[in-house]
Design brief:
The complex is a heterodimer. By secondary structure, chain A is an alpha+beta fold. Chain A is 19% helix and 25% strand. Chain A has one domain (3-109): 2-Layer Sandwich (Folate-binding fold), CATH 3.30.2270. Chain A has three helices and six strands, in the order βββαβββαα. Chain B is of the alpha+beta class. Chain B has four helices and eleven strands; from the N terminus they run E-E-E-H-E-E-E-H-E-E-H-E-E-E-H. Chain B has helices spanning 37-46, 83-93, 118-123, 171-181; strands at residues 12-14, 18-21, 26-32, 58-61, 64-70, 73-78, 99-103, 108-114, 140-145, 148-154, 161-167. In chain B, a hairpin with a 3-residue loop joins strand 1 and strand 2 (18-21). The relative contact order of chain B is 0.20. Classes of the chains: A alpha+beta, B alpha+beta. The interface between A and B is medium-sized, with 14 and 14 residues.
Chain lengths: 124, 191
């Protein structure tokens, strides 16, 4: 069972108090995208064994969305972070590097270089 | 004019701890920006001067209280008959400020769980650490009890008393679930 901490209200609970929202940091393509690219955005999801980033909602609690970094193999949770970022923040990546030496964000994103898309944590 | 009636009309049961439905209870939902001074002032005014609560806390002044429900939502407890006026007053005070102020008194049911071991009865249904070290007077938690969305908090003072709110439509289920959890001789002995 997962123990998650909601970064919005600070409450720690087990997973039945939350609701999973699927893969994190999806990037929408379009409106001029090819059908293939759009279908990829719409339907293709990662299914890693190991480090994964997900969206969760504190559905029985404060009702807010947030992100979780966890390991799908061991259910270890590396941390949770705010919803309005497009890439994992440095402190989460540092925690993962500590627990999973050798793991690289590019392994997860499938890109050649890590995205530099964090909005500075300020949101809109 | 029809007579107002709470969900279970003040039903109560004495088991290992006492479960009672609180009867008519005024509740206002206030949503807005917690950093906004006008919002904070309006919330405190609606709660009769109870100070703005800390995260996941309740602050009480007499029979009024402010409950921290989420990063942008408060619940005001106040006498049932004053809820409409208080909602209107809050809306007036917040004119021009993005906010929501609604009387939700009749949409909710409130319970009290009273007696030594009240936390043990609650802990049977909620996935929350309710040990004394983790959850004390003034602490509030929104979570689930069985399959119900609820919020509960511990009041100050003795005997151990918890307040609990849920939607009115599930009040009977909540009452029954609490009564089962608080059956005689069903709580751990070492309290």
């Amino acid at each position: 069972m997962l123990q998650l901490t909601c970064p919005c209200c600070g409450a720690t609970g087990e997973e039945t108090e939350f609701h999973p929202g699927g893969e994190a940091h999806l990037r929408r393509v379009g409106p001029g995208a090819s059908d293939e690219a759009f279908a990829g955005y719409m339907f293709t999801r990662k299914n890693p064994k190991g480090v994964h980033f997900e969206r969760w909602r504190h559905v029985y609690g404060c009702g807010k969305w947030f992100h979780v970094a966890r390991c799908t193999a061991t259910l270890e949770v590396f941390g949770s972070y705010r919803a309005d970022v497009t890439a994992p923040p440095p402190e989460i990546l540092a925690r993962i590097a500590q627990r999973r030496p050798g793991w690289r964000l590019e392994d997860w994103t499938g890109e050649s270089a890590p995205g530099e898309d964090v909005d500075g944590g300020q949101g809109a | 004019m029809t007579k107002a009636r709470s969900a279970l009309n003040g039903a109560a049961r004495d088991g290992a701890v006492r479960i009672e439905e609180a009867g008519l209870q005024g509740m206002l939902t206030l949503r807005g920006d917690f950093e906004d001074a006008r919002f904070r002032a309006a919330a405190e005014a609606a709660a009769g001067g109870a100070p703005f609560p800390e995260r996941r806390r309740i602050s009480r002044k007499g029979e009024r209280a402010l409950l921290w429900m989420s990063p942008d939502e408060l619940l005001v407890l106040l006498p049932w008959a004053e809820a409409d006026a208080a909602a209107a007053e809050a809306a007036r005070a917040l004119d021009g400020v993005h906010h929501l102020a609604v009387n939700v008194s009749d949409a909710r049911a409130m319970f009290r769980i009273i007696g030594a071991g009240a936390r043990e009865a609650l802990a049977k249904g909620a996935p929350v650490d309710l040990s004394r070290q983790a959850f004390g007077p003034g602490d509030l938690r929104r979570t689930r009890m069985g399959q119900l969305a609820v919020a509960f908090w511990q009041e100050d003072g003795e005997p151990e008393t918890f307040g609990l709110i849920c939607f009115r439509s599930v009040a009977q289920y909540a009452f029954d679930a609490l009564c089962v959890a608080a059956r005689e001789d069903s709580l751990p002995r070492a309290l």
